Amino acid sequence: MHGKLGTSEKGQAESIAEGIADEAEEHGLVAELSCLNQNEKYNLEKEKDPVVFIVSTTGDGEPPDNALQFVKSIKKKTSDHYKHLCYALLALGDTNYANFCNCGKTIERSLQELGAKQFYATGYADDGVGLEVVLDPWIEGLWKAINGALSKMASDRTDYSNAGAGDSIKETPDSSIPDVQLNLLRITDQKDCGSTGASVSKCATAASASAVSDLRPAAFPSQPLGTASVSAAVPHVTLAASLTHSLPPLSESSLNVPALPPPYLDVTLKEADTVQQIVGPSNKETLHEVPISRALQLTRGDSVKTSLLLELDLAAHPNLTYQPGDSFDVFCPNKDSEVEEMLHRLGLYEQRNHSVHISLLKDTKKKGAQVPAHVPPNISLLYLLTWCLEIRSVPKKAFVRALVEHTEGGVQRRRLQELCSKQGTADYNLHVRDQSLCLMEVLSAFTSCSPPLSLLIEHLPKLQPRPYSAASSWLRYPGRLHFVFNVVEFPACIARPAGRRGLCTGWLFDLVHPVAVFPEKAAWPQVMRTLPNSLFRPPSDQSVPFIMIGPGTGVAPFIGFLQQREMERKENPDAIEELEGFVSSGALSHLKVCFSRDDPEEEEEEAEEAFTSAASPRYVQHNLLRNRKHVTDILLKQKGFLYVCGDAKNMAKDVNDALLEAIRAELQVDQLDAMKTVALLREEKRYLQDIWG
Ligand SMILES: Cc1cc2nc3c(=O)[nH]c(=O)nc-3n(C[C@H](O)[C@H](O)[C@H](O)COP(=O)(O)OP(=O)(O)OC[C@H]3O[C@@H](n4cnc5c(N)ncnc54)[C@H](O)[C@@H]3O)c2cc1C
Ligand SMILES: Cc1cc2nc3c(=O)[nH]c(=O)nc-3n(C[C@H](O)[C@H](O)[C@H](O)COP(=O)(O)O)c2cc1C
């Protein structure tokens, strides 16, 4: 069986794919994994085995970087291109985003348009509520679906061969061993099942059945547990289930515990003087160490949340620029005290400066096993735990499963088995996932668990940078970058009696706390790498209105938007703004603005009332009439000037008529006298016109 697994921005799809590949073995299948951008490793054009795609979505419904090319290429293909393809798809997304699972949906739509056949209903896993909610049952059902697909393929093949010579034979797929293809994860039946689909299917079914381990509580391996025996095994009676204690029915239930993820790393620590003590993350080329030049607490001391605005000084990094709407990554280390605690817990504190050597276990059963790329060579153990591994991450069920093997004592082993089992899903969600427990918190509760360092490297994800949105405009603050954040607070719970702050926001908070005390250079944030967001920009046309909705720290990019517009307007003001500027400087004493209408009917209706009513004037002549006293004063008493300029067809004539009317009304003269007065103004060159077209 083959499987192809997909696309990932921050690694969740990838780790799910790896999990499926590992589990495939348990079902008597061998999986081959590839990322969608590794098109040298797979060939969908010729694929005859089921394929599983696992795809996340990023940006505003866009494919992750490593799927862009694939999505582009399938969109170009024409009908029936993939009619040979048999697929299932798991889409990862987050319902907090408008385009939920859009990349998965796009790929699926294209595959269907191109004639591919789905062998299992698409799963849409929602990171907003926890991927596992959909993920776990989806994977559970996958194996049966693959078996079904295998059987179908086998019988199709039989039909083809029974059809004898002729057209159908020409269409018969290649008669190589029919294995199932999971998207970019290649899974092949482990056993030599011969060359027919039927026998492959049979093998897979048998393996699948044996994968369901019927585990009894570890303390009583061979007999079902009654309530009495549970009480006898548990040191004290608890009324409610907790991280370490379960209640019936779970405590008495048989468990479907997932297969043990195959260990694959061999890790040794060596005393060495030459260990490179790198401070900060290892990808120095793309990162810049920037000082915090300002810190401002935006919330009052008694607010529930603490919001801070930080200003970073980019002056020393001329290549670092940004636009409103962009975000940037902050790389922060794990907390010193937590790293130390972990070192003690692993019994490796004394070796913290030893160098870490990692290689692949020679006999590992993990398919496609690789030394994690995020662990650079020749680093110290301290560095590994400080800068490489997300030690705060919530241990996945597979990790919990692996911890079982390193736990003494029946009760604790049993509880860990429960937490990673199918039956214990609700307990895992309640006591581990929803509390955001990290490994150290789990280890503190399971005192008899002593995992080796290799297990941490195998299961803890890469320490991720945290992105923040620019809350300033380069035009307004050249060489500076502002961002705004709330300090994340994890409330205390039984496994975390003191509560804790978010990793990055807590670190930034500590750097500038008390606010306005700036860190020494050693603690400058390891920023950044800007993350351009070319779609999330204010409209470049300044006359286009826009609406911004950004509760809480969501307001951050809009501060940048508004600063940008303010600065652009200052640099390139429109005529009215410029004129308003003259009024404020005193160069212009009065500015009367009017806005004409586009709708001629409306114009007609409103023209009359414009002369008299309080409605805002429509045309310049209306304004002239409305201010006739002032106008005649300027022209006739103060010997002022009147300039008329423009390209409007009737404007000059209308203005002239309005001036006659103003003079007639103000001086109480007849039309002829009014015309004489206007003629005099022209003669004296105090009524001047520059009319176009
Ligand atoms: C493109 C982008 C732009 C962003 N811009 C901003 C920004 O401008 N300002 C900003 O403040 N953030 C922003 N974020 C979020 C930011 O990157 C971090 O995720 C956030 O600051 C938390 O980081 P942390 O390391 O402090 O928390 P972590 O230690 O990583 O913890 C946060 C995680 O814990 C969970 N969590 C939080 N509180 C609790 C709780 N009480 N109980 C249980 N679980 C909890 C959250 O779901 C989250 O998964 C942005 C994110 C993205 C992707
Ligand atoms: C910056 C960012 C943008 C995202 N955009 C979307 C989106 O538009 N639609 C969606 O359904 N999920 C979106 N997500 C959620 C991810 O698809 C989801 O968290 C997924 O599990 C990530 O998997 P990965 O680590 O393999 O990339 C986004 C996540 C991030 C961090």
Automatic annotation (TrEMBL):
Domain named FAD-binding FR-type: residues: 285-539
Alphabetical list of CDD domains matching this protein: methionine_synthase_red
Top-level class of the enzyme under EC nomenclature: oxidoreductase
Entries under Gene3D superfamilies matching the protein: 3.40.50.360, NADPH-cytochrome p450 Reductase, Chain A, domain 3, Nucleotide-binding domain of ferredoxin-NADP reductase (FNR) module, Translation factors
Keywords: Amino-acid biosynthesis, FAD, Flavoprotein, FMN, Methionine biosynthesis, NADP, Oxidoreductase, S-adenosyl-L-methionine
Protein name: Methionine synthase reductase
InterPro entries: CysJ-like_FAD-binding, FAD-bd_FR_type, Flavdoxin-like, Flavodoxin/NO_synth, Flavoprot_Pyr_Nucl_cyt_Rdtase, Flavoprotein-like_sf, FNR_nucleotide-bd, NADPH_Cyt_P450_Rdtase_alpha
Organism: Dissostichus mawsoni (Antarctic cod)
One Gene Ontology molecular-function label: FMN binding
